[in-house]
UniProtKB/TrEMBL annotation:
The keyword rRNA-binding does not apply. InterPro entries: 26S_Psome_Rpn1, ARM-like, ARM-type_fold, Proteasome/cyclosome_rpt, RPN1_C, RPN1_N. It holds the Pfam family RPN1_C. Keywords: Proteasome, Repeat. It comes from Diversispora eburnea. Residues 757-810 form the 26S proteasome non-ATPase regulatory subunit RPN1 C-terminal domain. This is 26S proteasome regulatory subunit RPN1. One of its GO terms (biological process) is regulation of protein catabolic process. One of its GO terms (cellular component) is nucleus. The keyword Repeat applies. Residues 18-296 form the RPN1 N-terminal domain. GO terms for molecular function: enzyme regulator activity. Acts as a regulatory subunit of the 26 proteasome which is involved in the ATP-dependent degradation of ubiquitinated proteins.
Length: 816
């Protein structure tokens, strides 16, 4: 339709005036050009129009666009033809770009990015573009377009300039957007974003947010600096930061005893037991309470009791320890005649039974050591070894200045007379001091790795313990020792199943450190043995754990896609690559490892589609696939009491009632599902899923790697490797505290977390909430917020321990 046909009478003069101005531009009289342009500009800017329609002057000028452009070209020749808005802007007047409106500025910013890339490719100066961009950024920030401002500065590689533009109103949205971009960026931009957001938080004295980013950066000096600065700002705030560091298990030496106790996690057991009593789950449960065998439809005469009773007792040992973990009481072992239960097991079963005391007394160092003391003098080698392992378990995640774990376990490290005790002492030290970076333990364990006369079992478990203690530390001494050992050992030793644990010990040193492992990966290629491929994959997946790096995921999928001849080549590295996909993506490819990868990806997060996939695998004809699927169901449901999963596992117990191995796994999965009677999670992510705990990842990987050869480890004599999960176990509670560290019940809303990054206004951060009084339990995808404004939380995330302060501005509503 022609423009003229839809014009009203008042539009006609406007159209005629605009056409007259265009004609005047075409005339040769230069003196008239400036006033003509001013008139055009005024007409365009003063025209009122709705947001959805094009302003009338622009509509009428559209047919003349080519004419106006030609006129401009005849004035000044230019080589930049396709980015017109930017070209005219740089050559025109230097007024505020925001005066032309939001859409113009957005268009301008996209052209700045294109022009900048063009100039970079041709080695041209870009100062004028940067100057213009820095004029645009304040406009974006003022108009709730933080994402556009950050994207523009990222494009121009000057993101570190944004702190000067943010203020009290915009900093939170800017930092949230920057933190959420990190997983999508390539190094070094990802770290630059974190550092810049950290700088902004520090400018506004937001210490818990700042230290969260410092932990993600892995910069210990920066963490210490934030910690000290928080203390200068507010002593109570420093304690809150202390709880955050304790949750991440980052050791730090402080003179203040109160804060040192927080960092040592000393308060954990007291508050956990108080929570259990509050929720009425303190009473111990028996394995039968969990199995609910009366609901399993097994025909009479085919009861599961006819199956290998020692194996059944062993399953009950684990179920009992996981279900009653941290409560300090149970009905099998910690009772007066607990020795009777230990005696019902055989050899390694006795070891697991004795070690389960550590799990039941978890985090309660004083009581735990009293309970274990008598077992340390047991004449039975296996019971004594189990007690040593239990000491490591009890001390996991908590510290004590007297170092009881080190004092008791170190003397067994070099005792060659008792092989079992020696191994348990090595593993116990790894659990108790995971993430502590203790050099005295390094000196104790490193000789065991380098001594090629020792068995692969001892050397590999020592390497694993060192990997757990120095997780994410890139320690050069341990790296070179493990690589040297691999080169010196003969091929038959490296072929043993233990080789994977030596590799995992090496890989854990580089957890989350990305390119820092490049030299190690190159060195591994020099080892002429299939183990170099396996360990290479492990090192690579650990280095990029939790980064979401798409290139690495593609690389892992590519490894899985290789079709190997099983007779000639070892395909274990493919199994590790499958785990790698899950660990880096934190999408699941070779069948046996797929269930394990799903278990790792969704630990303590029972998503329905994942459960259904695992349920399908759990009935597989290949027993290895079925076993891995069953244990993965345990990982996915760990500590959630998920009713649908409980029903699935009961059906599996009936289905496998004649197959001892599968039934054993079903029982373990049932124990994991009810871990801590539904109060403990093994998910490595915490603080609103922003932080990944390296110690938790180490424990999960150590457990999952044992299932890549379940017959040797878990179904053989090393079922106690299941206790590696202890480093990932942590209560999923929210406990609000007053200034004296006493529980302070307040009402909170708990609901599904909603991602509000980049959304306009102040959207709700949770949906479908329920209002409860603290302490409360939080599921993996849930978030809590205070229901009233009576208190102010000192942490930006309501999770774990949170200090509350009275809000001085709060006015109580009239009850009348």
């Amino acid at each position: 339709m022609e423009w003229g046909q839809q014009q009203s009478e008042e539009d006609l003069p406007l159209k005629n005036e605009l056409e007259m101005l265009v004609e005047r531009l075409k005339e040769g009289n230069v003196d008239l050009h400036r006033p003509t342009l001013e008139s055009l500009r005024t007409l365009i800017r003063t025209s009122t129009s709705s947001m959805t329609s094009v302003p009338k002057p622009l509509k009428f000028l559209r047919p003349h666009y080519a004419t106006i452009t030609e006129v401009y070209e005849s004035w000044s020749p230019s080589d930049n033809k396709n980015r017109d808005s930017l070209k005219f802007r740089l050559q025109g007047s230097s007024e505020d770009p925001g005066s032309w409106g939001h859409e113009y500025v957005r268009h301008l910013s996209s052209e700045i990015g294109q022009e900048y890339n063009h100039r970079q490719e041709n080695d041209m100066e870009s100062e004028d573009l940067i100057g213009l961009a820095l004029e645009i950024v304040p406009f974006f920030l003022k108009h709730n377009a933080e994402a556009d401002a950050i994207d523009l500065l990222l494009e121009l590689e000057i993101i570190d300039r944004i702190p000067q533009f943010v203020d009290e109103d915009t900093y939170a949205r800017v930092c949230r957007y920057m933190a959420s971009c990190v997983n999508l960026l390539v190094p070094p931009d990802d770290f630059l974003f974190l550092r810049t957001a950290h700088t902004i938080y520090r400018q506004h004295n937001k210490f818990t947010e700042a230290i969260t980013l410092a932990i993600r950066l892995g910069d210990r000096d920066l963490i210490r600096e934030d910690f000290d600065a928080a203390g200068e700002f507010d002593a109570l705030l420093q304690k809150q930061v202390g709880f955050l560091l304790a949750r991440q298990q980052m050791p730090m030496q402080i003179e203040d005893e109160d804060i040192q106790e927080i960092l040592n996690n000393t308060h954990l057991t007291k508050h956990f037991i108080a929570l259990a009593k509050e929720l009425d789950v303190f009473e111990p449960k028996t394995p039968e309470d969990i199995y609910k065998s009366h609901l399993e439809n097994i025909r009479p005469g085919f009861t599961s009791g006819t199956i290998d009773s020692a194996r059944q007792n062993l399953a009950s040992t684990f179920v009992n320890s996981f279900v009653n973990a941290g409560f300090g009481n149970d009905k099998l072992i910690t009772i007066e005649d607990g020795n009777d239960w230990i005696g019902r097991n055989k050899e390694h079963g006795m070891l697991s039974a004795a070690a389960s005391i550590g799990m039941i007394m978890l985090w309660d160092m004083d009581e735990g050591l009293i309970k274990l003391d008598k077992y340390l003098y047991s004449p039975d080698e296996y019971i004594k070894a189990g007690a040593l392992l239990a000491i490591g378990i009890v001390n996991t995640g908590v510290r004590n200045e007297n170092e009881p774990a080190y004092a008791l376990l170190s003397e067994y490290i070099n005792k060659t007379s008792n092989h079992q005790s020696r191994i348990c002492a090595i593993v116990g030290l790894g659990m108790a001091y995971a993430g502590s970076h203790r050099t005295d333990i390094l000196e104790l364990l490193l000789p065991l790795v380098s001594d090629t006369n020792l068995s692969m079992e001892i050397a590999s478990l020592a390497a694993l313990s060192l990997g757990m203690i120095f997780v994410g530390d890139c320690n050069g001494d341990i790296t070179s020792t493990i690589l040297q050992t691999m080169m010196e050992r003969d091929a038959t030793q490296l072929k043993e199943s233990w080789g994977r644990y030596m590799g995992l010990g090496l890989a854990l040193l580089y957890l989350g450190k990305q390119d820092a492992s490049d030299v190690t990966l190159e060195t591994l290629k020099a080892i002429d043995h299939p183990i170099s491929k396996q360990v290479g994959v492990l090192v690579e997946i650990c280095s990029f754990a939790g980064t979401g790096n798409v290139l690495k995921i593609q690389n892992m999928l590519h490894i899985c896609d290789d079709h190997l001849d099983k007779e000639k080549e070892d395909d274990l590295h493919q199994a590790f690559a499958v785990l790698g996909v899950a660990l880096i993506a934190m999408e699941p490819v070779i069948r046996r490892s797929v269930p394990l990868a799903l278990g790792l990806l969704c630990a303590s997060n029972p998503l329905l589609n994942v459960l259904e996939t695992l349920s399908k695998y759990s009935h597989d004809n290949d027993s290895d696939v079925a076993i891995n699927a069953i244990i993965a169901m345990g990982f996915v449901g760990a500590g959630t009491n998920n009713a649908r999963l409980a029903q699935m596992l009961r059906q599996l117990a009936s289905y496998y009632h004649k197959e001892p191995n599968c039934l054993f796994m079903v029982r373990i999965a049932q124990g994991l599902l009810h871990m801590g009677k539904g109060t403990i999670s093994i998910n490595p992510y915490h603080s609103d899923r922003q932080l990944m705990s390296p110690v938790a990842i180490a424990g999960l990987l150590a457990t999952i790697i044992s299932f890549t050869d379940a017959k040797t480890f878990i179904l053989g004599r090393y079922h106690w490797f299941l206790y590696f999960l202890v480093t990932a176990m942590y209560p999923r509670f929210l406990i609000t505290l007053d200034e004296n560290l006493n529980s302070l019940p307040v009402t909170v809303r708990v609901g599904q977390a909603v991602d509000v990054v980049g959304q306009a206004g102040r959207p709700k951060t949770i949906t479908g909430f329920q209002t409860n009084s603290t302490p409360v339990l939080l599921a993996h995808s849930e978030r809590a917020e205070l229901a009233t404004e009576e208190h102010i939380a000192l942490s930006h995330v309501l999770e774990g321990f949170v200090f509350l302060k009275k809000n001085p501005d709060f006015m109580e509503e009239d009850k009348d």
